[in-house]
Fold each of these.
Amino acid sequence: MKIWSIIKAEYLINENAAKNWLFLIMLLVMGVSIINLSHQADAKVKKIVRLNKEVKALRSEYVELKTKVIKKKMASRVIQKMTEKGFVTPKKQPVKIKLKTKK
């Protein structure tokens, strides 16, 4: 008989029904909030994964650009580009100018 009263939901219409309704509403609110928090956590995990991929892509682009800059700054390349434009390398070394500073 106990199972039949649960199936009929008599616990929601008897004299102590107010307590039961409050308990069910509390369970419902807690369930909805747990579902909402789990969805937020999933969204944050997806955002972290996306940002990690973006960081890896930007890091590889940085390394690629850095190697290009290093290759362009090499002395042999600079000399080659300058000779193409008509400049020649000097035969003697430049003179270093030293200034005496007062202490």
Amino acid sequence: MATQPTKTTETSWTITGASAETRDKVKKAAAAEGMTIRAWVDKTLNAAADGKVSAGSRGAGAADTKALSEMSAKLDDLLKRTPDDPKAAEKAMTERTSAAILKAVAAGLNEMQRTAKDQARIIEGKPAKKKAKKPVPKTPPKPGV
């Protein structure tokens, strides 16, 4: 991209050789910030010259900054919960898995025992015990109904 001073004044520039894609991106970026192309280019070039914008990046808007901040906080939280030692992480996962399996097996054994007792009662000529029903939680009425 070549820059040349125009014939009118020393301070005006004309940028030649910019691709149609670059021109389109500049127009969209300026419009998104409610600025003229001249004002946006001036601001962006000054920021780049001052080292505030890295090469190839565009200025982050308030929404971008907020989204990045939220993602950073979530990543920090995830890293805090992840053990530094992979062996410790594996051990913790194994313990949780084992506990879940044991709980499921215990529930299955209890059900088998209950069924066996019911069958024994039936063989003895007694009625089987009815399974206790879990109470159904009442749902609150919907607003405006």
